[in-house]
UniProtKB/TrEMBL annotation:
Coiled coil regions, renumbered to chain: none
Keywords linked to the UniProt accession: DNA-binding, Transcription, Transcription regulation
Organism: Pyxidicoccus fallax
Annotated SUPFAM superfamilies: Homeodomain-like (SSF46689), Tetracyclin repressor-like, C-terminal domain (SSF48498)
Molecular function per GO: DNA binding
Name listed for the protein in its UniProt record: TetR family transcriptional regulator
InterPro entries in UniProt: Homeodomain-like_sf, HTH_TetR, Tet_transcr_reg_TetR-rel_C_sf, TetR_C_31
Length: 180
């Protein structure tokens, strides 16, 4: 009789390993074998915990988007007024959203996957909804939508542009949207 080793964290390790593999080689370079190797689990564990690669990718990107949403919401919720919100957004753009070394790559991989496969779009829609809800605590829905788009765009530009962007320029853009 073969006994199975009880490993309640195995599924979580697989999801975290999938994010690490995606960050290294993109969605296209992600395979069951690479994820299993990274997670330190037998290859058979992959199909035990996930019916296919799409399910694993959905779980992994949902975890990633939730983690960034929580970081975003915590920063925004600490703002008591519009001036504090402007400062919170500057900090989000310049520090919080790229706190993890792979956050930019994972964000862009998720956007690309969502653009190509509607089944993944729900993850990005939920992410945007959570961001806007956090912002709507201090601003109306239209302003929240505009500010959310600015935040995402600035995060990508700041992450990819070789010329550093000053916090003052970001602050000015945010204050314009907030009509401050």
């Amino acid at each position: 009789m073969v006994t199975r080793r009880h490993d309640p964290e195995r599924r979580d390790r697989i999801i975290d390993a999938a994010l690490a593999v995606i960050a290294e080689g993109g969605v296209a370079g992600t395979s069951h074998r690479r994820v299993a190797d990274r997670a330190g689990v037998p290859l058979g564990s992959m199909t035990y915990h996930f019916t296919n690669m799409d399910e694993l990718l959905r779980e992994a990107f949902t975890r990633f988007a939730t983690r960034l949403s929580e970081r975003f919401a915590a920063r925004i919720e600490a703002a008591a007024d519009l001036d504090a919100l402007a400062e919170a957004v500057v900090h989000l753009v310049h520090a919080d959203l790229s706190a993890g070394p792979n956050d930019l790559v994972l964000t862009l991989e998720l956007y690309t996957l969502a653009a190509r496969q509607p089944a993944f779009r729900q993850i990005t829609h939920d992410w945007m909804r959570r961001s806007r809800q956090a912002l709507e605590r201090l601003v109306d829905a239209r302003t929240a939508q505009e500010l959310d788009a600015l935040i995402e765009g600035l995060f990508i530009h700041i992450s990819l542009d070789p010329t550093p962007r000053s916090r003052a320029v970001t602050r000015d853009a945010v204050r314009r949207i907030l009509s401050l």
